[in-house]
Amino acid sequence: MQIVQNILNAVVFVSDESGNSCGDGETASTSKQRLTAQTLSCITCGKTFSSQRRLETHERKHTEQKLFTCTRCDISFPTLQEKKLHSQEHRDKKHFHCEECGNHFRSKSNLDSHQRIHTGEKPHKCPHCEKGFGRITHLKRHVRIHTNERPYECSQCGKGFRDSGCLKSHQKIHSEEKLYQCSHCDKRFRHKFQLIPHERMHTGVKPYLCSHCGKSFSTPSSISVHQAVHTGEKPHQCSVCEKSFSRLDILLNHQRTHTGEKLHKCSQCDRIFARLDVLRIHERVHTGEKPYHCSICGERFSQLGSYKTHQKKHAEEQTALESS
């Protein structure tokens, strides 16, 4: 830079009446800028740059100096732009492969978390109880049960939720849109998890098998309730009347009998129910749905209780015929 300063000091400007330097109309300021720009040139290829930072970035390509390293695969790059382009390839591809089940993941950390499903490892321990989790996000969600923290709030009604998934599911209550239609009847649902068990009523599929007695069930919640018959476990206790339940959702439904809270509104009329299963039975009044089918006479029923009462009549008739 001393050479540049000497050159600038040696430049002699002859001013004319308009204040311009002699010859080409260039001012002292613009001449200095031009000469400075010309000196910011790459000594290897001669390319010029407008700033020292851009020159230094360019020169790394010649020197092979690689300052920017990919955190996923440890490959280094001379410029940040090249590293960003490389990182995009990781986002577009799933390089990390699980040898147990064949699933692919975009990062090693996601693969490590997934593999705990196979190993059963649960390194993230709850500070309030003895429960452990394979993912830190699952632990954070669980801890909110102890702290009663509900950071996700519905903008429509103000109700709070422990995780964003529950909030999204809840918000569909405020919407009339039902995207999921049964392939066997005209009934539609807001959530896919509601559609799947409904369709099993038509198909008779019961994929959940009890390891104690071999009985099969159509939903995970059904088999959980059933297995409590074998184990007798009821870990969820009501703080008002001390009654215990095998599942948390059953306890929450029970507690509404104390609070009078009713969250489940019928989409066809103004009735509101404390329990979702009671709402579903009620909605059959509007839809005309009769999912319970008698295999003997073909009659259909909207409620399980009516269906069982009907079947008892056939059993009594059969017993009367055999005894006569």
Automatic annotation (TrEMBL):
Pfam families: zf-C2H2, zf-C2H2_6
Keywords associated with the record: Metal-binding, Nucleus, Repeat, Transcription, Transcription regulation, Zinc, Zinc-finger
SMART domains: ZnF_C2H2
Single GO cellular component term: chromosome
GO biological processes: positive regulation of DNA-templated transcription
Residue ranges of every copy of the C2H2-type domain listed in the record: 40-67, 96-123, 124-151, 152-179, 180-207, 208-235, 236-263, 264-291, 292-319
Molecular function via GO: DNA-binding transcription factor activity, RNA polymerase II-specific; RNA polymerase II cis-regulatory region sequence-specific DNA binding; zinc ion binding
UniProt-annotated location(s): Nucleus
InterPro entries, per the entry: Znf_C2H2_sf, Znf_C2H2_type
Gene3D superfamilies: Classic Zinc Finger
Domain of life: Eukaryota
Protein name (record): C2H2-type domain-containing protein
Lineage of source species: Eukaryota, Metazoa, Chordata, Craniata, Vertebrata
